[in-house]
């Protein structure tokens, strides 16, 4: 069965610390896609990244980086030198090629960055 | 850049009342979705419409109906609201179904309270 687990419910860090948000997924499909979304206190959901199952290259975008490891079914998200504006709930999500209309979300990790 | 627009943003209903959440997207997307977000449970799919003229049940469809009015609009109706339907509702759209790797873009959410 398909499932996304974000075991960290809440993380608190002080500004400028690095922080990693964990995401572990389960799927029987060989073709699938992984996503990260950010939900700031204002409530909207902001798309951050999409990764397909055939591309295990890590990706870096400014202070954000993502580590995709099929061997451990993980797609972790690291924020380097965190800032107060990074405070949000972050969701990891999975979609599968055979289950074409469903995006499965994890329960989210609330990140609080203190000045 | 309107993207996905949903109304109303906030609503308080009495148990047994009915209401319709409206959603429109201006990205010429084929697929549209309604999700609900509850504390500690991430986002769960209520209904989706893979293309104009089709609708299908998601994970938690009971108590809801939907209408894909045209390619742009996808409404969610609560016929007889119950306190268990107190939640944040998100409308979303994607160019093609998520199984093809398309990114889903979300509206800003509608906060619904049933008393």
Structural commentary:
The complex is a heterodimer of chains A (115) and B (115). Chain A is mainly beta and 115 residues long. Chain A is built from no helices and twelve strands. The model of chain A has no long low-confidence stretch (mean pLDDT 92). Chain B has 115 residues and is an all-beta fold. Chain B has strands at 4-7, 10-13, 19-25, 31-37, 43-49, 56-57, 64-68, 74-78, 87-94, 105-106, 110-114.
Spatial gap, N to C terminus of chain B: 35 Å
Sequence of secondary-structure elements of chain B: EEEEEEEEEEE
Q: How many alpha or pi helices of chain B?
A: 0
* Sheet with most strands of chain A: 6 strands, mixed
Gyration radius of chain B, in Å: 13 Å
Q: How are the SSEs placed, and which strands pair?
A:
The complex is a heterodimer of chains A (115) and B (115).
Chain A lengths: L2 E3 L4 E5 L4 E3 L2 E3 L5 E8 L6 E7 L6 E3 L2 E6 L4 E6 L8 E9 L6 E3 L3 E6 L1
Parallel strand pairs in A: 2-12
Antiparallel strand pairs in A: 1-4, 3-9, 5-6, 5-10, 7-8, 8-9, 10-11, 10-12
Chain B lengths: L3 E4 L2 E4 L5 E7 L5 E7 L5 E7 L6 E2 L6 E5 L5 E5 L8 E8 L10 E2 L3 E5 L1
Parallel strand pairs in B: 2-11
Antiparallel strand pairs in B: 1-3, 3-8, 4-5, 4-9, 5-6, 7-8, 9-10, 9-11
């Amino acid at each position: 069965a398909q499932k996304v687990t974000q075991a960290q419910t809440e993380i608190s860090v002080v500004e400028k610390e690095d922080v990693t948000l964990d995401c572990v997924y389960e799927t029987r499909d060989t073709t699938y896609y992984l996503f990260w979304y950010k939900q700031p206190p204002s409530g909207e959901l902001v798309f951050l990244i999409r990764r397909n199952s055939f591309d295990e290259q890590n990706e870096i975008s400014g202070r954000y980086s993502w580590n995709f490891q099929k061997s451990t079914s993980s797609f972790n998200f690291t924020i380097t030198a965190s800032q107060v504006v990074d405070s949000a709930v972050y969701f990891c999500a999975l979609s599968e090629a055979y289950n074409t209309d469903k995006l499965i979300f994890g329960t989210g990790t609330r990140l609080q960055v203190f000045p | 850049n309107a993207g996905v627009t949903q109304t109303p943003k906030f609503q308080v209903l009495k148990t047994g009342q009915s209401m319709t959440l409206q959603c429109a997207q201006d990205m010429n997307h084929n697929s549209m979705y309604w999700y609900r977000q509850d504390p500690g449970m991430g986002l769960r799919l209520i209904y989706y419409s893979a293309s104009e003229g089709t609708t299908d049940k998601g994970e938690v469809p009971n108590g809801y109906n939907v209408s894909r009015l045209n390619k742009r609009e996808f409404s969610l109706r609560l016929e007889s609201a119950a306190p268990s339907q107190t939640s944040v509702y998100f409308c979303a759209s994607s160019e093609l179904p998520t199984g093809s790797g398309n990114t889903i873009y979300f509206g800003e959410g509608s906060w619904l309270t049933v008393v």
